[in-house]
């Protein structure tokens, strides 16, 4: 299976042909995949070199000129390093654009901590009005990329990863999908962690919701699942910083008795970089670890309620 990032350049190159508003801004990373598009659309495919603050600023400048910029590099260089430009050049000026990241939380361990960005979504949560897509399969990435570019002048972040589920689901850029129904609690699986969550919850009486668009947070789907269960306890399993969406869950269920557990990437830096699978295990995001953490949390809630 190809990767989400393998789909990125072909999809956006087609969008360049289809829509004269679309423009692409790169910072060296990924430029080879756009060579043909750059020759065809030299005024709308721009490589600024290794200048990430300029990358975002140039994207905002294109938005000021009426274009729909697609801005791409690794997540750590796209969200963390030029955060001030995202905050001011896009946010303060009321401009829209599409930020598309690669490398996710730890997709390239050999690159070291400079190339890891588990805090990207939490950082964007400090700003207003960003839609955040976290696809879990290359087909979903293609769908969500098209949604993002077509989203008028909205601010959209698309988080691509080499991690992926075995099969794609019909995502629509808005709603959570109900993958499994149960009465003992709700587990929200985000993007490429769905397969791990399904394996972890096999045989457990829980509902599993699949989230590929996490901002705005689908409060209606969560309330529906929590209302249908005997317990409004919720576990959110995210491929980025643990606890990123716990506030969103609390807001959605503010009028209901509930507990929430946020599982994701821990704050502790792993200095022996290893492989992606080793990072999953170290952060407790493999199926075996998740089963123990999820069942322990939900069973503890049952004990409290029945005591």
From TrEMBL:
Transmembrane parts of this sequence: none
Domain Transketolase-like pyrimidine-binding: 2-168
Alphabetical list of SUPFAM superfamilies matching this protein: Thiamin diphosphate-binding fold (THDP-binding) (SSF52518), TK C-terminal domain-like (SSF52922)
Pfam families linked to this entry: Transket_pyr
PANTHER family recorded: PYRUVATE DEHYDROGENASE E1 COMPONENT, TRANSKETOLASE-LIKE PYRIMIDINE-BINDING DOMAIN-CONTAINING PROTEIN
Protein name: Transketolase
Organism, as annotated: Streptomyces huasconensis
The organism's taxonomic lineage, starting at the top: Bacteria, Bacillati, Actinomycetota, Actinomycetes, Kitasatosporales
């Amino acid at each position: 299976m190809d990767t989400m990032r393998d789909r990125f350049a072909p999809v956006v190159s087609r969008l360049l042909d289809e829509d004269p508003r679309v423009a692409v801004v790169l910072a060296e990373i990924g430029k080879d995949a756009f060579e043909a598009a750059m020759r065809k659309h030299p005024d709308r495919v721009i490589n600024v070199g290794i200048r990430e603050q300029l990358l975002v600023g140039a994207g905002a400048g294109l938005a000021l000129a009426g274009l729909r910029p697609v801005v791409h590099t690794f997540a750590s260089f796209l969200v963390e390093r030029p955060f001030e430009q995202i905050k001011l050049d896009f946010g303060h000026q009321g401009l829209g654009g599409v930020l598309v990241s690669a490398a996710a939380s730890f997709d390239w361990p050999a690159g070291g901590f400079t190339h890891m960005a588990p805090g990207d979504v939490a950082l964007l949560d400090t700003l207003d009005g960003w839609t955040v897509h976290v696809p879990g399969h290359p087909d979903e990435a293609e769908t969500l990329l098209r949604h993002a570019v077509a989203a008028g002048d909205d601010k959209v972040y698309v988080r691509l990863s080499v991690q992926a589920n075995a099969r794609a689901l019909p995502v629509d850029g808005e709603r959570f999908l109900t993958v499994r129904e149960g009465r003992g609690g709700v587990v929200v699986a985000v993007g490429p962690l769905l397969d791990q969550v399904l394996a972890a919850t096999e045989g457990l009486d829980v509902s599993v919701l699949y989230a590929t668009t996490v901002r705005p947070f689908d409060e209606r789907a969560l309330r529906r699942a929590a209302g249908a269960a005997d317990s409004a306890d919720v576990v959110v399993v995210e491929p980025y910083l643990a606890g990123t969406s716990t506030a969103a869950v609390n807001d959605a269920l503010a009028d209901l008795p509930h507990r929430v557990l946020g599982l994701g990437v821990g704050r502790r830096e792993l200095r022996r970089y290893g492989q992606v699978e080793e990072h999953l295990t170290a952060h407790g995001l493999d199926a075996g670890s998740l089963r123990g953490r999820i069942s322990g949390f939900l069973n503890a809630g049952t004990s409290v309620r029945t005591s």
